[in-house]
Model the fold of this input.
Amino acid sequence: MIDLLETERIKSEIAEQPQNVQSIIETSGEIGICITNDKGNFVAVNDAYTKIYGYGKTELVGKSFLIVVPESNRENMTHLHDKFIRDKREIARSWQVVDKAGRVMSISVDTAYSDQIFDKSPHKITFVHKES
Done:
């Protein structure tokens, strides 16, 4: 299960220092973090995130987050991402995802909304923990 105390700490740090978001996510330890824009494209990922999924940063940044979503759930996840950007909230939960090799795995996630990072447009920050 994802450490909600740690994700809250990181969320607070990002809110207090949005200009340092890249360095904050890079030094966040074992929690995988990705940031997507309002169109669902990755704008940043940390090393822990790439380790979970088996991709390099350059393979993800600029691409749709759907690359890690099973095909059967892509329509639903697109809808949920759009809803998050609109409503600015989501509950922590578990999901089935796929890594670069196509292996299905379970993750637990927490999320945050920010319109103060990067170009000050809406972004979804997703915190990821791979389940055993």
